[in-house]
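To the wet lab folks,

You asked to see what we're planning to order before we commit. Fair enough. Below is the target structure as tokens, and below that is the sequence we designed to fit it. If anything looks off to you, flag it before the synthesis order goes out.
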């Protein structure tokens, strides 16, 4: 229900929604967008960028399957702030178009060969507070998560 409430809050008053997020995360060092859910539309991505610019001391992370929205946003000349780390989610044979070389995240499946995962991908150790690799990936870097 909370996810539905959040989407409703965004749709009804986007300005207030992003002001609330900015205020609620201002004292954090690291914040992940969406434990479930994704970038809704280009206006939502613009709001995420606004939050990041407002809180330059916070590192924001967003895994996304909405690569079309992100690609269009960048193609239209918009900039992603340095403290907003966009990571394209990939799995099995689903590999997003990635003309801007955003970092990628993969799932390692036990029942297949996983050859699509880049050889240079970092294996997640499940200890985000210690590792923080995902928040600091550069263009072209990857991480993979063992399926559990």
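Sequence we intend to order:
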């Amino acid at each position: 229900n909370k996810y539905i409430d959040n989407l409703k809050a965004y749709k009804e008053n986007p300005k207030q929604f992003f002001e609330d997020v900015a205020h609620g995360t201002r004292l954090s060092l690291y914040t992940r967008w969406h434990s479930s859910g994704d970038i809704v539309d280009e206006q939502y991505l613009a709001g995420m960028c606004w939050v990041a610019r407002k809180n330059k001391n916070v590192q924001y992370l967003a895994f996304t399957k909405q690569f079309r929205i992100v690609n269009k946003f960048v193609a239209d000349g918009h900039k992603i702030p340095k403290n907003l780390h966009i990571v394209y989610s990939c799995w099995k044979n689903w590999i997003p178009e990635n003309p801007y070389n955003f970092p990628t995240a993969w799932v390692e499946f036990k029942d297949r060969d996983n050859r699509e995962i880049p050889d240079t991908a970092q294996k997640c150790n499940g200890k985000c507070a210690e590792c923080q690799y995902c928040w600091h990936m550069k263009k072209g870097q990857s991480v993979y998560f063992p399926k559990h």
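Structural context that might help your review: The mean pLDDT is 94. The radius of gyration is 16 Å.

Thanks,
Computational group
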